[in-house]
Amino acid sequence: MRLAIALAALTMAAPAQAEHLYPRDECGSAEGAESFRLKLATAVANRDEAMLQPLVAPDIKLSFGGDYGWETMREWLRDPNIRLWDELDKVLALGCSSQGGDNLSMPWLWGQDLGFDDPFSTFVVVGKDVPLRAAPEPGAPVLRRLNWEAVQLLEYPEDGGDIVRILTRQGEVGFTDFASLRSQIDYRLLAERQNGEWIIQYFLAGD
Predict the structure, then answer these.
(1) How many angstroms separate the CA atoms of 179 and 163, rounded?
(2) Is the pLDDT assigned to residue 83 strictly greater than 70?
(3) Coil, helix or strand for 180?
(4) How far apart (Å, rounded) are the C-alpha atoms in residues 146 and 157?
(5) The pTM is what?
(6) pLDDT of 155-175, one tens digit each?
């Protein structure tokens, strides 16, 4: 099932409505990118460290705090509290952006102009028909439905809560489920083509 989802992400068509941030694939024309992503999707779907390692730079950067290298990545893959395999799953399902012929990034959202100045409070609604409600109660009136669009988080959820207050690019203020949002600076994967081979140089979150 994981592999099927990841492979579907490789063949996504561009959305009909350009203002929406549906995941899309801009990497298909990059030389060797399809083969690289198929190997990556297979490794992740099978949770196969041996299959993943050749795709990863020996000094891969994993954080802005000095964490790097395959040995550290392997430790994190095995750590149930970090759930790095799950983060790779999410990234693979959200499209791919190409920065020239020798660089690509996943998810596609990474590097896009989302319309807000503060990356720490900028999120994307990752889904269709997500309700924007007038109040922080499940039964509150629905102002409209959100569809793969950028929003600004105005308040983080309280302890144990899952409803957050947001601002849309149209200036609407309302409430939605925090689980339906993905941070602009959440995990992203950046790969480079070196000597004809694609290598993952970065897999990290934050800024």
Answers:
(1) 9
(2) yes
(3) helix
(4) 19
(5) 0.85
(6) 888 777 899 999 999 999 999
